[in-house]
Amino acid sequence: MSEKKSKIPDPPAPVSVPGNLLSSVAPPSQLPNFVTAVVPPAPIAQPEAPQPVAPQVLQPLPVQPVIVKNKTDQHPQAAETFSPAIPLSKGEPMQSIRSPEDSQTTQSPESLPESSPEIEKIGDIMPGSGLLTWMKGAVSTGGILQRVAEKAKSSVDSMITTLDPQMKEYLKSGGDLLVVVASDKDVKISPIREAFQTVFGKATVVGYPAQSDVTAVQPVGYAAAYAAAKQRIAHIRSVHSDINNNIPVVAVENFLHEAIGDRWYDVSLLVLSQPSLGIEVQAQSQGAEVGAAAVAAAAAATPAHYEHAQTGYSVTIGSIMADSLQVPHTQWHEASCGVSRREILVLAARSLAGSYKRLLAVSAAET
């Protein structure tokens, strides 16, 4: 029995369907072109390529020193060559002092050529020459170096006096001015020393003990205080023979001054005397108010038969005020009015020193 072979059927043929939309559309027409035609520019002629050149080897220029001829030299001067502004070897001179004809003979200083503007300009930039000249001028004329030294000394002195205020009187002691104080109490010597050293720069101020035996212990009124100060000055000159009339002597005397009824003030009178120049200067300090009760207590403590009762009291007003305020004898001014006696005397002594300095200038101008 024969088997039947199966046959694969062929695909059906395409069937044209009438009324197809895509098949009825005509092909697209060419789109309009709105770009205008651009004319290309004319070609630019290219330069010809340079011909290769063989490289040149640069040779260093020889550096030669500037040769300056003597005026007596008849040979023509050598042509000048390039010379650097800064010498190659620092510290060496830029010009030779040897003659080109005889390099073994050194010229003497008298035979060296005179300086020219070019050589002076070179000397200004040579290391050492300009600096040495500047330093020599600064030292000889007392210029910047002296001011630097004075500034350094002032700074050191200021530091020392800040650390130890008592060193100030020793640093400013000396000079040509010697002042003697008719007292050995530091409360009088120290203010006068500070005042004269402030006004004169430097001054030596010393003190010697001196007492007055022609007035009361506590003078009352200006006349009594002036007499006591003059007595102290006379005592100093009579006891110390080395204190001549050319040395100024200062005396300080405190007295009671009644401004109005029952209003009393303690005032310091300062008297400076220099007989050789006929100078006598007086100055008064500001007053420290004293209560009427304290003055009455001083009057009550003075004996009736006191020999100097006409000029004052036998006890000082300071001792009474110190007992009343419960402070030491030297501190009653500060406890009473807020200013120490030393500060009061410093201002009065500065006024005294200023007047004395003016009179010295007048006396020097007259002579």
Question: Which key terms come to mind for this protein?
Answer:
367 residues; Maf protein; six-stranded mixed β-sheet; two-stranded antiparallel sheet; alpha/beta; 11 helices; elongated
Question: Can you walk me through this structure?
Answer:
This protein has helices at 21-24, 117-125, 129-140, 144-163, 168-171, 186-200, 222-239, 292-301, 317-325, 332-337, 341-366, and strands spanning 178-181, 204-207, 218-219, 249-260, 263-274, 279-284, 288-290, 312-313. Among the domains are: 115-163, no CATH class; 165-366, Alpha-Beta Complex (Maf protein), CATH 3.90.950. α6 (186-200) packs across α11 (341-366) and α8 (292-301) packs across α9. α6 (186-200) links the parallel β1 and β2. Helix content is 36%, strand content 12%. It is an alpha/beta fold and 367 residues long. It is built from eleven helices and eight strands. The strands form two sheets. Strands 1, 2, 4, 5, 6 and 7 form a six-stranded mixed sheet that branches. The protein is elongated, with a radius of gyration of 55 Å.
Give the SSE map:
Blueprint lengths: L20 H4 L92 H9 L3 H12 L3 H20 L4 H4 L6 E4 L4 H15 L3 E4 L10 E2 L2 H18 L9 E12 L2 E12 L4 E6 L3 E3 L1 H10 L10 E2 L3 H9 L6 H6 L3 H26 L1
Parallel strand pairs: 1-2, 1-4
Antiparallel strand pairs: 3-8, 4-5, 5-6, 5-7
Helix pairs in contact: 6-11, 8-9
Elements, N to C (H/E)? HHHHHEHEEHEEEEHEHHH
Task: Specify the CATH class of one domain.
Answer: Alpha Beta
Structural class: alpha/beta
How many E-type strands? 8
GO molecular function, one term: protein kinase A regulatory subunit binding
InterPro entries: ITPase-like_fam, PRRC1
